[in-house]
Design the sequence.
């Protein structure tokens, strides 16, 4: 049976896909950057000084965008054995509570990190000459994404679209086929 996807689900899936794409590209750039570091250090005898700063920025982007995608896919870190041991109705309430809590956390993260981005935007990162806010921007983006993804899942659970006996996963394409 093919489920009809709402526009909201499709948009959130595309946002998740963009996060994974940016994280993947950032990982490739990180690997190439360290390859250049090794080449510069051992072949050219001149260590590139900008590599460490770029690596830190890339790791932050990979981490936070990956975390946002993980919330969408329900693959984020969580301790669920107690919740899963509960009867179905209590389990359902606990899952909704967890999703709402994550949504609130995402919103707080979005607001706080947006302030950090604004605060650091006028300062430049040494060696890279880009705004300091670039380093905190992915945390703000991830906060917004966590808010959106968790809110959508909580709404689906409250509306009865998710059974308390089954894992909570987003409606998405079956990419393993």
Sequence:
């Amino acid at each position: 049976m093919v489920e009809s996807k709402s526009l909201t689900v499709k948009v959130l899936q595309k946002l998740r896909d963009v996060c994974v794409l940016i994280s993947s590209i950032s990982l490739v750039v990180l690997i190439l950057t360290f390859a250049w570091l090794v080449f510069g250090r051992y072949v050219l005898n001149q260590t590139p000084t900008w590599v460490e700063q770029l690596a830190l920025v890339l790791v932050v982007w990979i981490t936070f965008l990956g975390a946002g995608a993980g919330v969408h896919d329900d693959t984020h870190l969580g301790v669920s054995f107690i919740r899963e041991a509960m009867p179905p109705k209590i389990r359902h309430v606990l899952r909704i509570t967890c999703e709402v809590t994550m949504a609130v956390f995402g919103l707080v993260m979005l607001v706080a990190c947006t302030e950090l981005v604004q605060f650091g935007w006028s300062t430049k990162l040494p060696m890279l000459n880009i705004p300091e806010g670039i380093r905190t921007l992915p945390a703000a983006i991830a906060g917004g994404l966590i808010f959106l993804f968790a809110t959508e899942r909580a709404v689906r659970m409250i509306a009865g679209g998710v059974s308390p006996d089954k894992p909570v996963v987003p409606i998405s394409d079956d990419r393993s086929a």
